[in-house]
Amino acid sequence: MITSQRIGSTAIYALLAVLIAPSFGAPPQRTLPVDPVELIAGRDVPGRAELSVERDGIEYRFATDVNKSLFEKDPAKYEVADGGACGRMGALSGMGDARRYAVHDGRIYFFASDGCRTGFLKDPAAYIEHDDDKVFGSNDQVVRGRAALDRVVQWAGGAERIRAVTSYRAALAKTEKHGDKEYAVARETVIAFPDRYFQKESWNESWFSTLLGPDGAAMASVSGAERIAASRGRAFQRSMSRWPIVVLKAHADGSPRADCPGLIVIGEGDGVLGETPVEYIRVWLNGAAMRLTIDRSSGKPLQLAFRGRDGTMKVGESVRTFTAWSTIDGVTLPTAYTVYFDGKESPQSSWSIDAFEINPTLPADRFVMPEH
Asked: Regarding beta strands 264-273 and 301-308, do their DSSP bridges make them parallel or antiparallel, or are they unpaired?
């Protein structure tokens, strides 16, 4: 199943236009013109070009040496959220403009348009993403949750087959019509375990991709490629951690590991989905909390629910209901799902992959990071 971040079609070309900026230092759209220390304190004070710091491709200017020193001692306190990505469209969208900024709850946000800024300020909580809280339960719940996930692993092909998966690739192609225009949409998702992820999405001639590995994260488009802030890479990791194969690998391989800091699995009891007796499993992995609904007798995954963006602009409660499953090289996984978002059917969020591959031969440069 495909889980990359999506935005509305009306914004797709705006996203691509601002995704990659020229690499000749910090251009105006990536230069915050006011002192960030003063800005967070509620004051718009122009910064000075001679007192500047560049971080994640953003140039910060300061009014005084003292403020510059405060930033350098604790940059996470003062830097823009999500490395300057548009605050309304999210960490995995295009960049915001540093000249179009706002402060909410002590954080600076940039925006791709005035409309994005206005929409964000009306309801900031509807657009801000972060790591989900870890899930906790009793020892009995932990034992039950792990046993339930064992059944899912067995349904998917067994622990030995899952442990033998070193890479995974999924692809789809479809046509979408928006207004009078048709778009040929294609997606490719590649995972090389334990810690490399790649996604590319194309809309006619335009495309953009996201890459995450142990050396950092990057985004690319028809305009070029550049590394992105760690917070944006973390958002991509959360998204990828919702793929069933990632959860099953983490469970079958054993956790915690250096690259998987604490897979948490909690049994949440039994229920009924339609006429099917089911069991609920709460999972936390790499900052992503989700609930799996599985067939109680077979372990077959039927639903996955989480809070986040899922083909929509806002953050909300998404419930994916799996509608198809396929077996490749002895590994069985979901291949299609429909979505209810905040209790309403969301057809634009539903996806069906054309095929997936287990341990495919990957291009040698698939996970090569661009230079700083």
From this structure: unpaired
CATH topology of domain 139-358: outer membrane lipoprotein receptor (LolB), chain A (2.50.20)
Task: Count, in order, helices (H) and strands (E) of the chain.
Answer: 9, 20
The structure tokens 């039994």 sit at: 270
Domain boundaries, the chain: 9-126, 139-358
pLDDT at 16: 41
For 133-155, the pLDDT digits (tens) are 999 999 999 999 999 999 999 99
Q: How confident is the model at residue 372 (pLDDT cuts 50, 70, 90)?
A: low
What is the pLDDT at residue 178?
A: 77
Cα separation of 317 and 310, whole Å?
Answer: 9
Find out whether 135 and 266 touch, Cβ atoms under 8 Å.
yes
CA gap 241, 125 in Å, rounded:
23
Residue for token digits 């070309």? 13
Q: Which pLDDT band holds residue 311 (cuts at 50, 70, 90)?
A: confident
Tell me which H or E stretch contains 145. helix 139-156
Residue 176 DSSP label: E
> Is 0.85 surpassed by the pTM of this model?
yes
d(Cα 55, Cα 36) in Å, to the nearest integer? 13
Rounded CA-CA distance 284/289 in Å is 4
Query: What separation in angstroms does the CA of 17 have from each of 3, 333, 367?
Result: 23, 36, 24
Q: How far is Cα 52 from Cα 261, in angstroms, rounded to an integer?
A: 36
